Each structure stands twice: as structure tokens, then as C-alpha cells.
């Protein structure tokens, strides 16, 4: 019965449609081409006029050159972080070894965002790309952003920039941080190669005088938040730290703690592997923002202790020229290094920390470490009682002990590095020995050091 009615209805509908088409064919043939054109133009104008919404499509790649569209990546990160709760279907992936999942909005899903009172609809979709590239040969993803036309100015002038900046911050927070080192490859010359950066050191585990630690943390925080300030005073947004002190006092550990605190990548620059100033400049330019650039043992890296270039090169013989840092095609010189650190090129991709470490601060050229270039000079000293207490807290989970008095006295008498103290505590704590045994072992280490000193 139901199917009979259905057949009857569709038959009636078919008949109606047939008569409509017949009338339309009659009208079409009777009206002039001119009227037809006017009618179509009118319709074309009326449809957008009646539609109060505007649409912006943000594709994964630039339409013409098929290079990656940064706005797409930022929008993707932004929507995943801010609006993903509104989506029913999500994709999950892990981008860093920390294991934190990163959720992205699945295709054909719509989420809603609000910005300064404006409501914005984001629809995730994909299409066939016009051209195919290595990274995109099947489908190209895109977002369709829909908003009321009264918000057009707001979207163009503020919202898209807001998306870009927020997305960049979110990507930086979620990315896998990297440790780069410079290598020489036959084809491309000098370049960076990287591995995941997973050093566990933090300021909590760093054994250091609490006041110095606080100063460093405050300095780093004001650097990180100082974008507008640096711009206002006309300085490139970067900061230099010189870490100096005897071996095993925690200079390299401090670098890891700084990078972890700021969540920056680390570029470990091996100066002695670089051929000349030109290569050095190139390799500096290839570092990205939000990074710590490190030159360890700067006093040993190169002969950078001579004076800077003097113009009258002819007065010098070759050997003197090299020692005094002339711009030689086959060497990295002091002036080359200074230029790379804070010449005009250093302004590309700012927000960088530059750290030099040395065991012999007195050997360095004052020009290399003057304030403004190396803004903060941090002395990493032998182990103090305050530093020891950090180890005791971290390694043994104790705040006080009857042997603390003896250890404090011994630490005032002998020069032992934090590395030695850590080793003294660790050799036993690893084997689950009790606290008393660990501290007794350290007292023994300190007494031996005292005997050595007296000898
Ligand atoms: N201040 C410190 N806080 C915590 N651990 C430390 C500290 N100093 C040294 N250590 C421990 O000692 C080891 C060696 O320290 P680190 O490599 O940081 O010393 P360094 O100053 O860089 O030495 P070098 O001048 O020989 O390069 C580290 O692995 C770390 O475990
Ligand atoms: Mg070191």
C-alpha cells in the first residue's frame, strides 16, 4: 500500500516537473538574449547580497607555488588547542617523547570559536590539489572559516593575526625539542643535524647557591617576556651568558636546565669544525628562534684570544695576522665570531640565548665577553654547603642529618666540584644503601680530598 502511494506521488511530482520545464522552455525561447543576461546578472548579484556570511579558505599549501602555508599550521594548532572540545571526531598523535598526545580536528568536523563578540565557524575538509608536491600528492586539507560580514574587518585585521600568534605559541609548547650540532657534508657544506633533546636537568636539580639560582631564573623570565621591551629600546631580542668555573661545576648541566626552563632548542656549535667566517655566519643564520646557541670551552675552541682586526694588515706577517684574528679565508676569527653574534645578521629569527662556557675566563678577549655581548657572567664554583643541600634533597630526600655539620665544615676547607659530591652520594644511593652510609661515604671522599690538598 505504502509503495503504491509512493509511486502515485512520484508520478504526480514527475508530471508537475515536466510541465514546469515545458513552461520554462517556452519562456526561454520567447525572451531575448539580452533579458536572459540581465536576469542572470541580477541573480548573481542578489545571491551574495542576500547571504550575510563571508568565507575564507585556508589551504595547507599556497595555491600558486604549492609551498607550505604557515597560516594553515598555526590555525591547525590553534583549533586543536582552543576549540577541539567542540568536535565529535579528533585525530590523536604524539609529537614529543614526553608522550603528551596532540589532538587535531578530523575532516568534515565543524567547531565554533568566539573572538571579541564575533562568532566564527571553522570547518575542516580536504580537496584534490591543483598540483602535486612531495608532501601533498593525494589530498590537500583546508579549513573553511565562516563569519558574518559585519566582522570582516575584525577577521582580516585582527583575528587571523591572533590565530597566527596563538598557533605559533601552541606549536612551540607541543613540539619535540631538539639538540643540533654542526656537521660538514660534501654536498651542502656546513649544516645542522639534530636529535631529540631530552636532558633531565632542571633548576630544581641544579646544585647552586639559591640567590644565584633565583637571579638567573628572574633574568631568563624577563628575557622570555621581553619581546616588546627589546623592540622599544631598539635591541635585538637575544641575551648572552658566560658560564665559567673549574671542571665538573655544572656548566653543561646549567645549559640543559636553561633550555628546559625556556623550552628552547639547543644548538651546540663546534667552532673548531668550521672552516671560515663565511661558514660561521651561514651556520648562525640557520639557527631558529627560541633556541640556546652554545659554544663550550670557548678558550679551547680557537685562538680567539688575540686582538680584533686592525685595518693595516700589510704591517703584519701571516702568523701574527692569524693570532690577532684577521679575516682569513681559512680560519674563524674573533671578529668573525663577534660579527656572527651581534652583527646585522644576528637580527634574523631573534629570541635566542647565546652561552659560552670556559674553565679559564682570564684567557678570553675582553671584547668577546663584554657586557651587552655576554650580558650575564655566572661563576660556577666548587661545591658549597647550600649546593650540597640540593643534592641531599634530590638524591637522599633529606633536609637535615647529624652528619651535615661535619660536611659543612669540610666543604669550607676543601675545593671539591659538585660533580665529585654528586658522585660521592650516588655510588651508594644507587645500590639502595641507607642515608647514613651515603653521607658517611661523602665524608670519606671529602677527607681524602683534604689529605690530598695538605700533601
Ligand atoms: N651544580 C651542579 N648541579 C647538579 N649536578 C651537577 C652540578 N655540577 C656538576 N654536576 C654533576 O656532575 C656532572 C658533570 O657536570 P657538568 O658536565 O655540568 O660540569 P661542567 O662544569 O660542564 O664540566 P666541564 O668544565 O668539564 O665541562 C653532571 O653530569 C652532573 O650530574
Ligand atoms: Mg661541560
UniProtKB/TrEMBL annotation:
The keyword Magnesium applies. Keywords: ATP-binding, Magnesium, Nucleotide-binding. The keyword ATP-binding applies. Its cofactor is Mg(2+). SMART domains: AAA. GO terms for biological process: response to stress. Pfam families: AAA, AAA_assoc, AAA_lid_At3g28540. CDD domains: RecA-like_BCS1 (cd19510). SUPFAM superfamilies: P-loop containing nucleoside triphosphate hydrolases (SSF52540). One of its GO terms (molecular function) is ATP hydrolysis activity. Residues 237-384 form the AAA+ ATPase domain. InterPro entries: AAA+_ATPase (IPR003593), AAA_N_dom (IPR025753), At3g28540-like_C (IPR058017), ATPase_AAA_core (IPR003959), Mitochondrial_chaperone_BCS1 (IPR050747), P-loop_NTPase (IPR027417). It catalyses: ATP + H2O = ADP + phosphate + H(+). Belongs to the AAA ATPase family. BCS1 subfamily. This is AAA+ ATPase domain-containing protein.
Amino acid at each position: 500500500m505504502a509503495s503504491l502511494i509512493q509511486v502515485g506521488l512520484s508520478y504526480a511530482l514527475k508530471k508537475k516537473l515536466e510541465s514546469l520545464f515545458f513552461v520554462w522552455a517556452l519562456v526561454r525561447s520567447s525572451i531575448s538574449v539580452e533579458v536572459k543576461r540581465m536576469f542572470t546578472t541580477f541573480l548573481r548579484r542578489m545571491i551574495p547580497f542576500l547571504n550575510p556570511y563571508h568565507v575564507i579558505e585556508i589551504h595547507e599549501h599556497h595555491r600558486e607555488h604549492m609551498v607550505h602555508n604557515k597560516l594553515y599550521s598555526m590555525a591547525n594548532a590553534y583549533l586543536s588547542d582552543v576549540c577541539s572540545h567542540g568536535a565529535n571526531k579528533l585525530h590523536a598523535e604524539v609529537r614529543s617523547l614526553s608522550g603528551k598526545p596532540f589532538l587535531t580536528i578530523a575532516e568534515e568536523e565543524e567547531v565554533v570559536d568566539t573572538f571579541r563578540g564575533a562568532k566564527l565557524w571553522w570547518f575542516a575538509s580536504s580537496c584534490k590539489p591543483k598540483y602535486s608536491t612531495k608532501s601533498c600528492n593525494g589530498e590537500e586539507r583546508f579549513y573553511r572559516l565562516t563569519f558574518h560580514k559585519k566582522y570582516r574587518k575584525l577577521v582580516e585585521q585582527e583575528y587571523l593575526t591572533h590565530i597566527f600568534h596563538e598557533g605559533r605559541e601552541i606549536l612551540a609548547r607541543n613540539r619535540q625539542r631538539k639538540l643540533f650540532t654542526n656537521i660538514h657534508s660534501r654536498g651542502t657544506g656546513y649544516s645542522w643535524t639534530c636529535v631529540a633533546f631530552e636532558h633531565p636537568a632542571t633548576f630544581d636539580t641544579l646544585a647552586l647557591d639559591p640567590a644565584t639560582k633565583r637571579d638567573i631564573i628572574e633574568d631568563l623570565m624577563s628575557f622570555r617576556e621581553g619581546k616588546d621591551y627589546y623592540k622599544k629600546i631598539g635591541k635585538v631580542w637575544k641575551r648572552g651568558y658566560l658560564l665559567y668555573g673549574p671542571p665538573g661545576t655544572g656548566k653543561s648541566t646549567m645549559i640543559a636546565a636553561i633550555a628546559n626552563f625556556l623550552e628552547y632548542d639547543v644548538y651546540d656549535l663546534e667552532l673548531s669544525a668550521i672552516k671560515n667566517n663565511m661558514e660561521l655566519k651561514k651556520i648562525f643564520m640557520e639557527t631558529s628562534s627560541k633556541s640556546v646557541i652554545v659554544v663550550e670551552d670557548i678558550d679551547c675552541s680557537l685562538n680567539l684570544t688575540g686582538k680584533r682586526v686592525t685595518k693595516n694588515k700589510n704591517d703584519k706577517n701571516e702568523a701574527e695576522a692569524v693570532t690577532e684574528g684577521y679575516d682569513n679565508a681559512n680560519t674563524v676569527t674573533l671578529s668573525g665570531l663577534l660579527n656572527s653574534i651581534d652583527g646585522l645578521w644576528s637580527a634574523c629569527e631573534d629570541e635566542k640565548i647565546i652561552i659560552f662556557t670556559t674553565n679559564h675566563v682570564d684567557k678570553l678577549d675582553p671584547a668577546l665577553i663584554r657586557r651587552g655581548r655576554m650580558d650575564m657572567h655566572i661563576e660556577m664554583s666548587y661545591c658549597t654547603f647550600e649546593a650540597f643541600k640540593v643534592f641531599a634533597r634530590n638524591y637522599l630526600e633529606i633536609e637535615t642529618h647529624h652528619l651535615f655539620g661535619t660536611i659543612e665544615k669540610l666543604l669550607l676547607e676543601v675545593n671539591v666540584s659538585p660533580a665529585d659530591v654528586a658522585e660521592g652520594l650516588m655510588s651508594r644511593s644507587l645500590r639502595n644503601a641507607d642515608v647514613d652510609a651515603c653521607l658517611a661515604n661523602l665524608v670519606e671522599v671529602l677527607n681524602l680530598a683534604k689529605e690530598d690538598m695538605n700533601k
